[in-house]
Design brief:
By secondary structure, the protein is α+β, with helices and mostly antiparallel strands. The chain has helices at about 10-20, 25-50, 50-55, 60-65, 70-80, 80-120, 135-145, 150-165, 175-180, 185-195, 220-225, 275-280, 290-300; strands spanning about 200, 205-210, 230, 235-240, 245-250, 255-260, 265-275, 310-315, 330-335.
Length: about 325
């Protein structure tokens, strides 16, 4: 049997160099990145060594392999080169693939950190500084998911999660990590499309049910099945107070102003509530154009969708800092009479 195709000893270092990571990996970013990248340098070098030398070196990969084998197999591994090559041919490619997946996730996390700091400070030079302390328990769970991230979508998603956890420890629960690992591409895209419709406070995010007939779309059902929202079967209402003929709803990227025919009162709007996983994933999904989504949802809606007669609906986007609404108004709906 022919030996596995050798990998250059410098391959691991070359892979890390190609990630274009920041020069100074300080604080929690350095801790997380080092944890995920640790195996890249070890595995190719171990695969190059002769079996006897590998066993003497007792790297972590070989220790794991030996522990999973019986005493008879362990003894044969020390003397039978052919058996070792069979084990190595099956074991190391999987470990290398997992290590490369983790490296790709780290690369995406570094990009996200740069974008986050550029948005907040306008300066990318201090892009990995943080005072939060990332938990070892989080890294233990995260690493298992990151090593299986073979698609670009999942690598980007896990990279964004890691970046936000580095910035603020505790941003993601173990349950949310599981939900993300199991979510289908179609469901992720559906969630991406409803994010611009989310309103409310950070601990009570809602999505209004804008169909007065009570029709539940397949997309909305899939979001509940995935554990991102709840209330699809009914029973959840958002209580809104009308003041001076209008209701102001804080949205993800702006403010929604709904003007009614009556001046004061309250209204109950059917809604879906985001679960903990849904709330934690809001900043992870790829952003879509909020204007086009809102126009498509509010254009031609029934004037009594909110439970009382609607005169007009306007949307004001937030400015670049995310604090104050822009002065430009986007008209989403206007009653004919």
């Amino acid at each position: 049997m022919s030996e596995p195709v050798p990998v250059e000893p410098s391959a691991g270092a070359s892979i890390i160099a190609s990630l274009n990571l920041p020069q100074l990996l300080a604080g929690e970013a350095g801790k997380a990145f080092s944890r995920l990248l640790g195996g890249i340098l070890d595995i190719p070098a171990a695969w190059l060594e002769r079996p006897a030398a590998v066993l003497r070196a007792k790297t972590s990969a070989q220790v794991d392999l030996i522990k999973s084998s019986s005493r008879v197999i362990e003894e044969r591994l020390q003397t039978d080169e052919q058996l070792f090559l069979i084990a190595a041919a099956n074991f190391f490619p999987k470990e290398i693939r997992r290590a490369l997946n983790k490296a790709a996730v780290v690369s995406e996390a570094a990009k996200s950190l740069e974008l986050m700091d550029a948005k907040n400070t306008g300066d990318c030079e201090n892009n990995v500084r943080t005072n939060s302390e990332i938990e070892d328990d989080f890294l233990n769970i995260f690493e298992r998911y990151a090593e299986d991230a073979s698609s670009e979508r999942m690598r980007v998603t896990w990279g964004r999660i890691l970046a936000r956890e580095i910035k603020k420890s505790g941003s993601f629960s173990a349950k949310t990590l599981r939900v993300v690992s199991e979510i289908r591409t179609e469901t992720a895209l559906a969630f991406q499309r409803v994010v611009p419709l989310v309103y409310g406070s950070s601990n009570r995010n809602m999505i209004g049910n804008l169909d007065p007939s009570g029709f539940i779309s397949e997309e909305i059902s899939s979001l509940e099945d995935a554990g991102l929202i709840t209330g699809v079967s009914g029973g959840i209402h958002s209580r809104l107070t009308i003041v001076d003929g209008s209701v102001t709803l804080p949205m993800r990227s702006g403010v929604l102003l709904v003007n009614f025919s009556q001046m004061d009162g309250t209204m109950q709007m059917p809604a879906y509530a985001l679960t903990e996983a849904g709330r934690e994933c809001l900043d992870v999904v790829e952003h879509v154009d909020d204007k086009s989504v809102l126009l498509s949802k509010f254009h031609g809606i029934h004037p009594d969708v909110f439970g009382t007669r609607v005169k007009s609906i306007d949307y004001f986007r937030l400015n670049e800092s995310g604090n104050e609404p822009k002065s430009d108004r986007i008209e989403l709906y206007k009653a004919l009479r």
